[in-house]
Structure formats: C-alpha cells, structure tokens
Amino acid sequence: MKKLSLIVLLSFFFACGDSSQKKSKEGSKEAAIQEGIADGKFNDFKHSFVEALWKIEPIWASYVGYHKYDSLLPLPNEDSRKEKMAFVNGMKEELNAYDLNELNKLNQIDYKMIRDALERFQFGIEKFKRFEWDPSQYNLGGAFYQTLNYRKESLEWRLTQLDKKLENVPAYYSEAKKQLKSPTKVHTELAIQQLNGSKSVFEKKLIDSLSHSSLGVLFKEKFIEKSENAVKAINDFISFLENQILPKVANDSSSFRIGKQLFEEKFSHDIHSAYSAEDIFKAAVEAKVELHDNMYRLSEMLWEKYYGDTEKPGNRLKEIQMVIDAVSRTHVARDSFIYAIRQQIPQLEAFVKEHDLLTLDPDKPLVVRETPGYMRGIAGASISAPGPYDKDAETYYNVTPLDNYSEEAAESYLREYNHYVLQILNIHEAIPGHYTQLIYSNKSPSIIKSVFGNGAMIEGWGVYAEKMMLENNYGGSEKEMGLMYYKWNLRTVCNAILDYGVHVNNFSEKEAMQLLRKEAFQEQAEAEGKWRRARLSQVQLSSYFTGYYEIMQLRDTMRVLKGDAFSLKEFHETFLSFGSAPVKYISEIMQDDALKVLE
Questions:
Q1: What residue spans of 96-182 are helical by DSSP H?
Q2: What is the pLDDT of residues 309-328, one digit of tens each?
Q3: 3-state helix, strand, coil in the chain (%, to 5)
Q4: Most exposed of 135, 471, 524, 552 (fewest Cβ within 10 Å)?
C-alpha cells in the first residue's frame, strides 16, 4: 500500500509537472513575444532619443563621431539650458511609458543608463551649474578639431561645416562672459592655458587645411576672415579672464570645494556605484594600510640590494621611501620619454596574447602622439578613442612631452614615471587597459552604452588591468616591479582619499601634500599636479578606485559561482562585451546568468 501510494503520488507530481511545464512553456513563449514587441519599440525610442540629443549637443556629437550637426554651435545661455531641460522632461515622460520588466536584460541596462543620464543633465543645470564657475568649459578648440579630423567626409565638406560654425564663435564668447557668476581661480587659470593652446586650431590647422582644399578663392577669403574673427573673440575672452576675473579671485583659496552634499550627489550621478562616496573613502583608507604593509615587506627584501649593510631608518614609511628613491633612479632619458612608450606597446600586446588573457583587435592600431595643446593642463597621459559612429578612426595615446619642464621638474617627473612605473602606466592607458576596453566598448551593439560610457567602469578597468597583468607574472620575479606596482596602486587609493578629503573634509594643501608625498611616496611634481587636479575636478579622482573595487568584487564572486568552470579570459571578454556600462549593472547580469546555470 505504501509503495502504491508512493507511485500514485509520484504519478500525480509528474502529471502536474508536465501540465505546469506546458503552461510554463506557453507562458514563456507569450512572454517572449511580448518582450520582443517591447524591445522593438524601446529600440526605436533609443534611436529617436539619441538623434534628439545630438541636435541639442552637437559638440558632444562630434566627439563621438556623429557629424550630422557639425555646422551648429549653440550659444551657452539660458535659452539653450531651457531647451535642454525641455528635452530632459520630454524624454523622461517617454521613458516612463516603458515597463522595465518587459525589456530584455541589455535593454534594461540601457533604460537605466538613459534614466541616469537625464537625471545627470538636470542635476548639472539646476544644481551643479558648472557654467557659472568654470571658464575652462568654454574651450572650442576640440570641437573644431573633431570635425576637421573626420576623414570619412571630404576636406571640402568638413571646411564647409566649419565655415558655418565659425560664424557663431564671437557670439559664443560674448555669451560665455555673461554666464560666469562665480568663477574660481584654478579653473580660470586652466581656461587661460587651454584657450591659448586652442588658438592654434584656428590659426594653423584650419588655415593649413583650407590651403589644401579645392574650395573657391572667395570662400577661402571669407573663411580666413571668420577664422581671424574667431581668434579675436578667443583673445578677447582670454583678456577678460586675465584682466577682469583673475584680479577678483586672486585670493581665492577654497571656492573650488563643492561640499559633502554636492559631492555625494555628483558621485551618485557620475559614478553609479553600489556604494556611497563615503563608503568608498573608508574602503580606500583601509586599502592604504594594506598597501603600506605589502610595500614594507618588499622594501625589507630589497634593502640590502640598494643599501648594503647601511642601518635602516627605524620608520616604516621612511624605509619604503628610501627604497623607492633608489629604484626610481632607473628611468628613461628626458628626450626618450615618448619613444620609450612607443617601444613598449608591442611588448604588452605580445604578453596578453601569450597568456591568452583576452582577444586583441589587430585592425585597431594605437597611435602614440604628443598631447595636443588644447588638451594639456590636467593629465600627462590619456587615451582619445574614436566615437561609436566613427569606429574606424585612429585611437590616440596622448603623451605630454617634457619640453616646458625645468631640469629639476623633468627629473622629478621621470623618477615618478621610472622604468617600472612607465610600464604600469602603459598597461593602464593602453594594453590591456583603456585602449583595449574602449575598442570592446565600440563593438557593443548598444549605442547607449558607448555614448554614456561610465567613467568608473572605464577607469576601474584600467586599474584592474594593472593588477591582473602582474597576477599573471608580468615583470617576472622582479621585486622592484611589485614595489612600484603597489606604489602605483597606492596612487589610485589616494586619489579617492584626496578627492573626498579636498571637497568634503576640507584638506589644505599641506594636508594634501602630506598624503601624496609622505604616504603615497609621490615625487614633488606629481604631487603638485595631483593637488591641482583635485581642485579642478570633482568625483573623477574617486572613479579609479571605485570601479576597480567593484570589478575585483565581481571577479571574486564569479570565481565562487563558477568554480572549476571559471575562465579568466571568458570573464574579461564577457565583462567588456557589455560596453562601458556601470559595474553594478554588469554585475547584476553576470551574477544572474551564473546563478541560472547552477539551477
């Protein structure tokens, strides 16, 4: 009877199971149809959303490789901001018409990223108001260069678009003057530096290109006149900043600080982390302690090599600094800095291929160049990748030469970017860091993920790439490479501490220098540059550690979920396949997919 009852019970269970499976399949099919319809409509919305965005943001459009509106130069005034807010409110209303749960996972990320972008636009206009205090945002050199460098259209087409854009330059700078209500000293100084650099675009690059075009004599004469008027307007704006603004802010020592509330809000809008800015600050402080422990351990091992039987200083930080000083003396010559970077790129490519860490695209070469004048003044090295609409354009690794450095400053800079650190820098900026990640990002089928690339994910990947390469034995058994990696990683950690410390905890220059020089072991030139950068930017310096912190957590989680099936290469390529989306959104999908496999 018990056996019969069990058979009956099992038969009933499986019968119900068959029935529920049929219903489930029918329900899944119906859901898939509904999802397909919803995704199709949402894809149409994304297209119209981006098209409308570029019409009100034509300069941004040029930077991402969309050149339909290259002739437009909106004036930076209240009318433009009202137009943008009308766009924000209208798009919010359209977005809210979609049910997030009816969209597939990739579109759910796009939905969230569009929502986040609209909220960020509104925050920028209504609360952050950079247009009132940052004169450096009124720099048109890059906007004109992006159009001039668009090789898919003829030179004549490009110059015709720029001819129309040139007409608005005098009015643009006239309006820019009216917007500046409370400019800061440090941003005004940056604006003057960059505007002086951007003049070469109008005085040389445009005119040189014009001379090589087949456009008529009359067009050329009028174009030259418009270009000269643009330079006059830029000079007038520079004069305005030098003679009317700088004297008023000569004693400005703190207006660049944005405070805790604005910092947390901007962190939320820019970073989109699973953590708060304060959480990240605390995590960075803890990470600094761990890094000091690792650096002290290696310094103990290296002491005899560099100092023989010299008595140790009896202070951990001082001992670390002494060993770093000794190791840092090995660096390239001043005139060979850019050349050395060019030489290292193929070596990094070979290492990634040999260790099968991820797939590199041989059709996307990296061009190492001197940083253009209009981009100088913030970072010594950076990547300029082609936009999602111009994927075949060249990717540039911008390196600022040491031409304007004194001998002392140049030596300090070269010790900072010594033989070991220079390799880590190239990993971060180039391979398999930013350059590689941005190539993958441009392959993403989602234009939203490319256009609204998340800075913390991008910077976090660069930092993660450094650690991952050393984990795979890049640098071999050289303890110097390990020590310098920890020093470099300490920079990432201290970036976050400095960022929060300056804007929320009111770090003075003395406190910043204590952190950077004594606790992060940075050279004087590097520390001074970072102090300046912390005053010029807000939240961006926190992006490196935040993204890295979240990527490492995701990798650890995926190792546990996948067990023996975990593949480092698969992890990298899956992670990068989502484009430059916030790590927390990528993490949600990757973990969910892994859990489904386990079910």
A1: 105-123, 130-133, 141-148, 155-166, 169-179
A2: 999 999 999 999 999 999 99
A3: 75, 0, 25
A4: 471
